[in-house]
Amino acid sequence: MTAVSTGTPGRERGRTPAPAPARRGRRRWWGGQPVGTLLAAPYLVFVLVVFAYPLGFAGYMSLHDYFFTAPGVDVPKPFVGFDNFAAVLTDPQVLRSFRNTAVFLVINVPLTVVLALVLASALNAGIRWASVYRVAYYVPYLTASVSLVGVWMLLFSSNGLVNAVLGPLAPDPSWLVNKGLAMPTIALYVTWKQLGFYVLLYLAALQNVPRELHESAETDGANGFQRFLNVTVPGVRGATTLVLVLAIITGTNLFTEPYLLTSGGGPDGASVTPVLLIYQRGIQQQNPDTAAAIGMLLVIVVGLLSLAAQRLNRER
Amino acid sequence: MRYTRTAALVGAVALATTACSGGGDSGGGEAGAATGPITVWLSNNEQEVGWGQDVVDAWNAEHPDEQVTAQEIPAGSSSEEAITAAITAGTAPCLVYNISSAAVPGWVRQGGLVDLATFDGGADYLAERGGDAVEQYQTDGGSYQLPWKSNPVMVMYNKALFAQAGLDPEDPGMATFDDFLAGAQQIVDSGAAPSAIWPSPTNDFYQPWFDFYPTYLAETDGTLLVEDGKATFDDEAGKAVADFWASIYSQGLAPQEESTDDAMATGQTAMQMAGPWAIASYGDSVDVGFMPVPTSDGRADVTTFADSKNVSMFTACENQGTAWEFLKFSTSEQNDGALLEATGQMPLRQDLATTYPDYFAANPDYEVFADQAGRTGDVPSIPSSIEAWQAFREAYSSAVIFGSTTTDEFLSTAAQQIDDLVGG
């Protein structure tokens, strides 16, 4: 974490004399490009202060009987080992929140990858009004979730537009108060909201897929779908890994949507998520130790899922 | 290299998914007699802010060396969260005029509140102003909040919709559970409104204060949710109240969804549980009437939920002497009268109606609340209070709103959970 190598390997190899010890020390700390290191340092400090320290502190809290006190109030916060983890792992609501998240990911992640790639490919193919579509996809991503949730509540409420269109086919209970449909509705909402960002990622990646490959495939008789499957998809593999990891992170950090769209994880806990529980336990109920334990479990789960996504999508 | 990249990925993911904040553990408040400038926080209710600024201006004119600055409570999901964060950070003001009793035990545990009874004449002032009722606001034997004002919860109804449904707007005759259900059914069947009543069905810990709890207090003549360290509601009275609300939902008289608008103002519902604040809020837009919370037998003089908001002093306050004097000044008979005049909310004083007879003579709409204010129960001061209310709400939602479990299961499960939490 302390040394960032920005040197160019080819140039390094060209230098025959070994640097002096003092220079070696400086290089060890500052790398081959001290100015670059200096420019990157503020972000490194930001990461350490805003992410790394809280992560370490959350680990500390999760292992102690911890609660927030006013400054100067000295209260024992004894080490309790894995008691907080045992408590949350045997809490039916916590387990349910992870199951709800799994439902969300199963719907949201594949849908995000497929839709984003298909739409990006269509935009990249030079369809008419491409920039209009690009803006249309991106606007939901830029718009505050709170205001979009209001629109979706109007659309998907019992007397909303969607049910009016569906008529007798409308689900009963309605979407947001239906235990089987609440989480899938949230997954659809998040897919729609985030899609513009992922389309942009894929659009950038598609610029690096050589046109010659498409032309060769076409010459070999491949149709549009075959070219998409055998040229485009492998060509954007790196972007797909990024989209997978980001979609998993976004999905597991779900808070605003169940908090607002389904009235705090309803109906009857069908859309409660780990982050919603962290908020309730840590902030509302002042139990930051168990909230931190849920957070640490979430970090582990997200790490493992991201690792699995990366391995599954690795170039063979 | 592959493993380095993998480790970097896992590390980045771990960092990106965690954004907790840590609290410090140093600093502290100073005891009592110091004087000087102080800051107070007010709720963001427009009328209360206006009242608060007038009181502050009057104080500042007389106390040039002890100036008071009034601010609205910082924006947050709720006042309680903003205050909890301020206590932890050591940035709490001297006084906050919008304290919910449910949050007080947690703040006492944090070491964030000052026991007002430790000031000279403190206990006497509280008792003199609030009478015996102040005892129910104590935590661990300490007076960490001054009971300030209440908004006794009653059933507010739209008179025009009642008339349309064929109910007498001046005397709807819905005092018993059965009559209430029949009247509610009449409203829906007549098409006067799509729903009869619309309590918020969200999962927030405080929502029971506006559906189950006022009705339970009425049914039991004021039994609190927890008394002597034990949940009280797993009994016949609790069962009657739970079944009443379950009938409301199962008969389609109240929606299971959150309203996307003000359901009362838009005519989507004919009734709401509300306090006197609603009179000013609805003004001329809706002609509203009020009736007591129903009970199984329609008894007279029912008790209801106080929905009080109180005043607490924080240990972060450096000039607690000034804060105490300002607290007494702002809750004097004169300034309580000004609060009543400005907001219509009931100061938690003894003999309210006889203390301000002119006001109630001039504002007969509020008289019913003044009468009701004498028969209220509040949130019990218990350990893990918010956790207990959250557990209660989840069990209630499951059984009463969504019908996933029975009301018997709700009562026994919630009572057991609350007993465990309160018993530590």
Automatic annotation (TrEMBL), chain A:
Residues of the ABC transmembrane type-1 domain: 98-309
Location of the region described as Disordered in the Swiss-Prot/TrEMBL record: 1-26
InterPro entries attached to this UniProt entry: ABC_transporter_permease, MetI-like, MetI-like_sf
Keywords annotated in UniProt: Cell membrane, Membrane, Transmembrane, Transmembrane helix, Transport
GO CC aspect terms: plasma membrane
Pfam families the UniProt entry points to: BPD_transp_1
One of the GO biological process terms: transmembrane transport
Transmembrane segments: 35-55, 102-123, 135-155, 186-206, 236-255, 291-309
Membrane topology (UniProt): Multi-pass membrane protein
UniProt subcellular location: Cell membrane
Family note: Belongs to the binding-protein-dependent transport system permease family.
Name of the featured protein: Sugar ABC transporter permease
Organism: Cellulomonas triticagri
TrEMBL record, chain B:
GO biological process: maltodextrin transmembrane transport; maltose transport
An example molecular function term from Gene Ontology annotations: maltose binding
Domain of life: Bacteria
Recorded GO CC terms: ATP-binding cassette (ABC) transporter complex, substrate-binding subunit-containing
PROSITE patterns (alphabetical): PROKAR_LIPOPROTEIN
UniProt entry keywords in alphabetical sequence: Signal, Transport
InterPro entries reported for this sequence: SBP (IPR006059)
Gene3D superfamilies, per database record: Periplasmic binding protein-like II
Annotated signal peptide: 1-21
UniProt record similarity statement: Belongs to the bacterial solute-binding protein 1 family.
Protein name, UniProt field: Extracellular solute-binding protein
Gene source species: Cellulomonas triticagri
